[in-house]
Amino acid sequence: MMDRRLLLALPLLPLAGRAYADPPPGRGQGRGNQGGNQGGGQGQGQGRGNQGGGPPGFAPDTSSLVRNWQAANPGWSPRPLPPGQMRQLARGRPLPPGIARQQVPPGLVSQLPVHPGYSYAMIGTSLVLLGSNNLVVDIVANLF
Question: Which portions of the sequence form the region Disordered (predicted)?
Answer without folding.
Answer: 19-101
